[in-house]
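To whoever is on call:

I kicked off a structure prediction for a single chain this morning and the downstream step that reads the tokens threw a length-mismatch warning. I double-checked the sequence; it's 42 residues and nothing unusual in it as far as I can see. Pasting both halves so you can look.
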Amino acid sequence: MILEGDFQRPWTDKDKRYSRMVFIGRDLDEAELKAGFEACAA
């Protein structure tokens, strides 16, 4: 498993704020991944 991430720059007041995760792999179960992340929501 490899995890990579970095911060580009601080957001400005004009930026639309969002975060994104990209999964690259074979035979990933989208429903299972989505359910797992939704279960972590506070």
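Update from on-call: the warning came from a stale cache, not from the record. Cleared it. Sanity check on the structure: The helical segments are 30-39.
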